[in-house]
Predict the structure of sphingomyelin phosphodiesterase.
Amino acid sequence: MEGEPTLRLRIFDLNCWAIRYLSKRRQERVRLIGDTLRREGFDLVLLQEVWSEQDYSDLKVKLAGCYPFSHYFRSGVIGSGLCVFSRFPILDTLLYQYSLNGYPYMLQHGDWFCGKSVGVGVGVTAPLLSLSLQLHAEYCRDKDAYLPHRLVQAWELAQFIRHTSKAADVVLLGGDLNMHPEDVGIRLLRGWTGLRDAFAEATHFEGCKNGCTLVPDNCFTDKSELLPFPLGIRIDYILYKAISSFTVKCEELKTTTGPAPGMDIPFSDHEAVMATLHIQRQGQPACATLGTADLALADVVTEARTEVGVGLRAAQRQRYSSGRMAVLALLLLLLQAAAALGTLAGLGAEQPFPKLSFCLLAFLALGVLVLATGLHLFHTMEVKMLHGTEDQMWMALRALQERP
């Protein structure tokens, strides 16, 4: 009813950069994060890149008194790194793994092995549908080979939210989206779901200039990656929307700024994002809307579909190249087999090559065949996923254009 008490919800979101054996001072920082969360007493904590389950277990034990409900989302080879801590009961959880997530042969990046996902927790507050997530990293903005994959992830995330939030009253999303606020992926996600940006909506803001969460002043940040952005970049977000008879307003948004209080190190190479939301029931249900003018949204979908099409053509070329390599390796193996059989049958005077060289060439051809076949199968699946997303975007675009 109108005038019902307002629920004040305090949220903490952080990309923890807790990679075992690789992240600097990981255990010390995880303990620092736990101490801060226990002291501050947030209502909901969304963490990314907690790659070690032992780190999660240590946090769970430390925070059991103030966050009695928690969940760790397992995915991929090394895990999704996503976990959530809550003061309120978590009634249900769900993990959705994106269909495209980089390339398995790009070992130096590793996104494919962690199985980037979105973790969903359904709580009793409102009820509240909360999502913790991370999208594929950018690595190089000038030559972003992963842009089509990240757009597919943004589209799947937007579709996922639209289809799973129908029973919720409030949707809350927090995480490292690895996209700038003006990037097409962010505009697509917000336009298609109606999510609102806490930074843009906050009545009061305190923290890094422009809400940046990857800043040069952070001692763990790779300064060379931020040379084009002297103030830093904003890639960590808290997004929200009310669906039924509720309203949500962002009273305050904060980011951490450098070292933690009384310490010589920050929590992570990312700055944490903290939001205070006011949730209140209204007299009449809110109208369901995409949150953006249809014509503007159609332009965003068109731009995203174009980028996905570029990725599709690149994947088709890679599939053709790997398939051709597999055929050539197979032909070489068949020729070697024919030569070996001819020698055994006495059709040749002697082995045309030294036996060791012949065996090494056979093993090399076999290795190329296995590798090229695996790449061909992977890029075939990539083509199918990109093509499917392109078709979905075309259907959505047509629906927008035909709407009265």
Observations:
- The chain has two domains: 7-288, 291-402.
- The radius of gyration is 25 Å.
- Confidence is low (pLDDT under 50) at residues 286-292.
